Every structure is written in structure tokens, then in C-alpha cells.
Amino acid sequence: MATIEQKVQRLLDIEEVKNMIATYARGADRNNDPEIMGPLFSPDAVWECEGFGRHEGRAEIARALGETGQNDITWTLHYMISPTVHINDDATTGTAHYYLWELANMRGESGNIEACWAGGTYDVELIKLEERWYFHYMRLNLKLVTPYDKGWKDGPIQSF
Predict the structure, then answer these.
(1) d(CA 71, CA 129)
(2) Among residues of the chain, what percentage have pLDDT more than 90?
(3) From CA 102, how far away is CA 97, in angstroms rounded?
(4) Is residue 152 classed as helix, strand or coil in its secondary structure?
(5) CA–CA distance from 148 to each of 29, 80, 114 (Å)?
(6) Cα(6)–Cα(64) distance, rounded to whole angstroms?
(7) Which of 68, 120, 134, 137 is the right S-S partner for 42, CB 3.0 to 4.6 Å?
(8) Are the C-beta atoms of 31 and 69 separated by less than 8 Å?
């Protein structure tokens, strides 16, 4: 049976992780600002998403996301919805799952910037190092990426 102190600490940890998720969204909405995004990841973290690649290590994740935010996804409004956070019994690892609903300006295959809808889920592994939580592994599972004017009636993920 957990003590009251352990229960309170678990709640504090969950709130810290939810704040990290919100900070990630804020950084994403600032063209994937590397100074906001980088510190959220552990030094040996992994970020991956089909179509956007796999990036390993805090510095590489911050660089790659920042480059994407400057060149390919030039404006966004991220909604991170319904986060569920589980802190493991060891109190130093955990998981999070949440939904993404995103409005974006994205560079299409033609090279032109188009208004788009994007949606999916995040599956995240967490680690606590030196009394602070970090994203250790993050996978974005896109279920919908489509130009605004085409909608999603012809299929959930479209090239444009």
C-alpha cells in the first residue's frame, strides 16, 4: 500500500508530465523551437513518426524538429487531447498516451504551402532523471493528414 507521501508524489509527477505535454505543444506551435523542444527529451531519447523519420538523441531531435518547423510545417496549432499518464511503481519510469488534433500549414508535394488537418495519437515512454521527467521515447501515430480543401472523405492520410 502506497503512503500518502507516495500518492502525492505520483500526482505531482503526473502533473509535471502533463505540463511537459503542453510545453511540447507550445514549442511545436513556435515552429518546433529547438530551445523549447530539446530540454523536454532525455539525452538518449528517440522521436519517430512515419513520414517524418526517426531521430535519436536530444540534440538530433531538437535539430530535426526545428528544421521541419522552418521548412515543411510553417504554422501549426496543436491540441493535445485527453492525456493519460501512468507512473510505474519504480517512480522513475512511466508512459503517456494522448490524442493530437492539429491545424497546420504544410508544404505539399508541389512545393506549395497548403492549409491542412492532421490528427493522430502519441505513445510516449517517460523517464525521471535527477528529479525531473523527460520524454524518453515518443511515437506520433498519424491517422489523418489532408489538405483542408480536400477533407478526409477520400481516405484518412493523403499526399498533397
Answers:
(1) 33
(2) 85
(3) 16
(4) coil
(5) 18, 20, 8
(6) 38
(7) 134
(8) yes
Q: Which three cell numbers stand for residue 41?
A: 527529451
d(CA 140, CA 73): 15
Distances (CA, A) of 120 to 12, 47, 145, 156: 27, 15, 9, 10
Q: Which residues pair with 97 in a beta bridge?
A: 84, 123
* Beta strands at 93-107 and 113-129: parallel, antiparallel or unpaired: antiparallel
Band (pLDDT 50/70/90 cuts) for residue 160 is: very low
Distance between CA atoms of 92 and 130, rounded to whole angstroms?
10
Write the CA distances from 128 to 43, 74, 89, 105, 107, integer angstroms.
Answer: 12, 32, 12, 34, 36
